[in-house]
Input
Amino acid sequence: MQIIDFSFIDAISFMIWLIASYGLSKIFRKFNIEGWWAFIPGARIYWLGRCADREEDGKIAMIFEILTYPILLAGQLINYDLQIAKYLALLNIFFGIVCMIYKARICIDLCGDLKVNKNWAWLWVFAEIIPCLVWAYNDKYTPSKTLLRYNGLDPILDDDLLRSLDENVDTADSGLAVKIKDRTVRNFLDKRYLLREIFMNVPAGHMVLLLGGSGAGKTTFINAVTGYEKANAEILLDGMNVYDKYDKMKYSIGFVPQMDLIRSNDTVYRTLYDAALLRLPASTTFSEIGSRVNEVLEQFGLSSVKGSLVEKLSGGQRKRLSIAMEYISDPYLFVLDEPDSGLDGVIARDLMRRLRAIANQGKIVIVITHTPDRVVDLFDDVIVLAKDSKRTGRLAFYGSIDEAREFFGQNSMEGILRLINQKDEGGEGRSDEFVLKYAERQVDTK
Output
């Protein structure tokens, strides 16, 4: 085995690559990407693809570029079998050509974004140091859009304010305490923030409206609070940590999704009885199960149709059965995603009144509805989630309905949504303003 010999030409090539990478790092910063990615082989081409809205091309080019390195190294180490070395060299050339093709596709679109002649793309492929330096140091080459990414800095709340919000949450032995620092997901090399800095206390006996536009993080928030998808958070229900004691706490939490999964060929009673077998603790006796099923049938107005097939139920009855299936375990925290979807005003209001009665028993009921104003008088509080300027779900308000109207200067919940929704969604794009205003209000009132 021979020792790899790095020649003077190799040293010059490395210096050229290093200078080009420095220029690329400055271009990345124009797109709101951390500059150090430019010095990582493979990753640099992926982020270039992100800049040009060609993420999939960037992934493919990254894979082929990374593959060329071990093949090149193996070719230099092998000296005893020229035939293998030849095949490795051909394979390396093939990978290099594929990478160049995808890189060219990326750079053509990048030229369009920077409003430069597309011939620059070929120059980038064969001599990237030139466009890297020219585009990096000339302010004329500024992208028409930047990537909406978390860059390590919070544009809304400072550290002192965050600490105060965290400390203000009461973790007493009653109600729901929510301290969500963040909820993130990984997207290849990128990290996306779905939720950030949501702190609140929800008292027992309250029915709460969860309000927010599309993509504001309502479902993510619910999943984090119920423990279905854990966040970087502390969720306390009557002083008990939901995440640490989930096996025990899951019986105290009920969640009704928007779409039901009820078998149509079962009777109402059988459907609810089967749900009880699944959701009640294993120690529950058959007598207790039967009593609980009859109790819930009466509570949701289904006793008169308990022998009917599910497929014969009206829309309102089917919806009530769907809710009853989750309520059979007698949860302390009850969360519902659009329970009134597809129901007319009278039936929807009757359903919401039943949920109000559940809250009046000392439980916590959280409801998402896309028609909040027709039943808003039945709610105690409203949680308003909003997408900030980086498309991350934030808490813009939590408090009573009347306080929300005064805080936002709007008479309706729809009016509140118009204020906080982004401009490309038909709103006024003032979410950052209200996130900061609410946080400062919470600290000032403590």
Q: What stands out?
A: Residues 8-137 form one domain. The two ends are 72 Å apart (CA to CA).
